[in-house]
Design goal:
The protein is of the alpha/beta class. The protein contains 7 helices and 11 strands. It has a domain of about 160 residues: 3-Layer(aba) Sandwich (Rossmann fold).
């Protein structure tokens, strides 16, 4: 028996092809990753717009530039959302105001005990109230780090963890890891006696899944000041001949 040909086969194939094309046109584009600028132009450009959502670790010693990045992230986010800072006793509100943080949108949580700190951070992330949360991290276990990283990703918030030397989050958890290092101070006036401290220059080195290049970025964090002559002072010690040459140059 001869097979019966389908006179509508071509129409049916054309209809299915058109249906697939229309479905592809109506399919929504994948959402772009949400980035939070720090208004440090070189860093924002290298990061593709700023800090990503999720866990961001800023590693390095005190006065290495970690606070400059964290405070600027708080300042930018506070213009349109609430932000939070878990204070271990080192918070200085005038420095936050100088960085541009809107205090009326900043939630400061004073907590020093490590167990209470982890509990407060967990509550803040689950509440989904704050666009940015800044905390000075402790030596938490991998399970605690994993919970915080997952909560930050799920809530779309940026959790900025300041890590002292020797502390590290488990590999693969942070969306971004940066190591900060202070390079030199910036003063106004001449000489160290009576000179006003305006800020410092620091470098940022990517550690994992961060920048296209592994070369450190040199960034400048300055306070607002009058129109005064500036000079920079290296943080490292100089030899006697170098100090003499520096005085002659000034």
């Amino acid at each position: 028996m001869l097979p019966v040909s389908d006179p509508f086969a071509n129409r049916r194939a054309a209809f299915h092809s058109l249906k697939e094309r229309l479905a592809a046109l109506q399919r929504p584009a994948p959402p772009q990753e949400r980035r939070l600028p720090c208004e440090l132009s070189a860093l924002d450009l290298a990061l593709g717009g700023g800090l990503p959502a999720g866990l961001v670790t800023l590693e390095g010693p005190a006065s290495s530039g970690r606070g400059a990045i964290a405070f600027r992230a708080l300042a930018v986010a506070s213009r349109s959302a609430f932000v939070a800072l878990l204070d271990d006793g080192s918070c200085y509100p005038p420095a936050l105001v100088e960085a541009g943080v809107l205090l009326e949108r900043l939630l400061i949580v004073p907590v020093r005990d490590g167990r209470l700190l982890a509990r407060a951070l967990d509550t803040l992330l689950r509440a989904r109230l704050c666009r940015v949360v800044v905390v000075r991290a402790r030596g938490w276990s991998a399970a605690i780090w994993g919970r915080f990283s997952r909560l930050a990703r799920e809530t779309g918030s940026t959790l900025v963890a300041l890590l002292d030397e020797g502390l590290h989050a488990p590999a693969g958890l942070p969306a971004l890891r940066l190591r900060c290092r202070s390079e030199r101070f910036v003063l106004c006036g001449r000489g160290s006696v009576g000179g006003a401290f305006l800020g410092y220059i620091f470098s940022v080195e990517p550690l994992a899944r961060a920048l296209p290049s592994r070369a450190p970025l040199s960034l400048r964090a300055l306070r607002a000041s009058e129109d005064l002559p500036l000079h920079e002072r290296a943080t490292r010690s100089l030899s006697a001949s170098q100090r003499t040459a520096q005085r002659r140059a000034v």
